[in-house]
Amino acid sequence: DTGVSQDPRHKITKRGQNVTFRCDPISEHNRLYWYRQTLGQGPEFLTYFQNEAQLEKSRLLSDRFSAERPKGSFSTLEIQRTEQGDSAMYLCASRPKGQGASSYEQYFGPGTRLTVT
Amino acid sequence: QQQVKQSPQSLIVQKGGISIINCAYENTAFDYFPWYQQFPGKGPALLIAIRPDVSEKKEGRFTISFNKSAKQFSLHIMDSQPGDSATYFCAASPFGGATNKLIFGTGTLLAVQP
How distant is the Cα of A69 from the closest Cα of chain B, in angstroms? Predict the structure, then answer.
């Protein structure tokens, strides 16, 4: 078990460009979350997948943002027409199947730091 | 609307001392309360979590104390070490909710001086 992985770790882009991030959850974790973290703040929820179904999206997720989890395994987060305000750390977390207490534990990846110039 | 309030914003503790970080929540639907540790440039790592059916949970040097009536919970780090220097986040979520998304506090930057 190698934990949650994210790629790339760092991305610098110019305003107006599109970017895509990838998250590979812990194997057999069917639940996947995206969060955004700005400097000096705690992570903020963006969206949630259970298997391949996107079950919740935050109001923070404007129409420039789209997330997918096509086969219920890895997930991608795309930001179109990036703005300077999109600069942040984008974190992915996964959670195991089941109903017991341990099934509510979310495990985070290392994040993708986006800088929009 | 900030649903989880965390204090202090920063904390300096001597090696071997006790670090105490406090959080308060408003939403009575919350009933799962984890603490995360985050080092610079890394993702948050789960430290310890509690549900309100118990008032205290201990794992190694880390203890959560929970006061359901006051809607407050705290993290105690015993025998604090320089390697504990990091940012700590409390969080909350509805245990039986559909998504169990985490609502985080604003973080506490802990510095343990040798």
Answer: 16
